[in-house]
Amino acid sequence: MKFGKLEDSSNIDFTLPQDHPDTKNVLSSNTKGLGYISIGCAKWSKTDLKGFYPKGTKDELSYYATQFNSIELNATFYGMPAPAQIHTWKEKTPEDFKFFPKIPNTISHFRRLIDVTDPVTQFATSIMNFEEKLGMAFLQLHDNFQPKDYERLEKFVKEWPEEVPLAIELRNIEWFTDENMFNTTCELFKKHKITHIIVDTAGRRDVLHMRLTTPDIFIRYVAANTETDYRRLDSWVERLTQWKEQGLRNISFFIHQDIEAASPLLFAHFIREINKKWNTDLHIPKMVTESTGTLF
């Protein structure tokens, strides 16, 4: 994910913002405890995950699913998924695996939420074939989609099928600087049980928020490819621990990073810290470097 990436992030303050006052209230609405913890990548192809697959791996998704329990499915952003394709993906993964399909750019970027009833119905109907393996769909709006377009967003949210969990990512700074609009939008999300996506990336600290609208979280973390990445992940472990104590229900945490030898260490570090802090037993992915075959 290129959004907010910088060549030099040495002067960036990566401190996480304080929680919005309403976040605690939203979390306290969940009385059933913690549900799923999903941690994964945005893609599973060898091209994007060099050094991950053992030599000779033929079915990338099947192997990926032995190491991670979820995927941020960006492939669906570029084309409407057919039900047959959904079934194929579903059958290649274990029972506890979850998919988080991205709403096609035809809906979000080209039509910009105008006259999208038919494609939305088609998309939702298709991804429902994931059945119990559907985490939630997510809508990423273009960074030039502004509050002046609020009525389109409101219509989209109100017409979204309730049986399909949905998260929305806002990128334009005006959604966050206009306090009245920010409150109005968050209340809309709360009313319709829409999860407010959090993006943590170096170059866009202006849109990093801590206002949850459901007891679920969807975090898209973009590595800076420096030692700060580990401290940033430690900060997230601390914040997630606080939220867990307050009523956090489901966790979806996706790490975006460049292809490099340090990549597996980030995933391993984050999951290891979660396991240690929460006494969980999440699988720590093992990655094989192409050059040495060394397991991290």
Question: Can you give a write-up of this model?
Answer:
The chain is of the alpha/beta class. The protein is 35% helix and 14% strand. The chain has 10 helices and 9 strands. The chain has helices spanning 21-28, 60-67, 83-91, 105-110, 117-127, 150-159, 174-177, 179-191, 228-246, 263-278, and strands at residues 37-41, 70-73, 98-101, 137-140, 166-169, 194-196, 198-200, 216-222, 250-256. The strands form 2 sheets. Strands 3-2-1-9-8-7 form a 6-stranded parallel sheet, with helices on one face. A 3-stranded parallel sheet has the order 4-5-6, with helices on one face. Helix 9 runs parallel beside helix 10. The longest helix is centred in the C-terminal third of the chain and has 19 residues, at 228-246. It is globular.
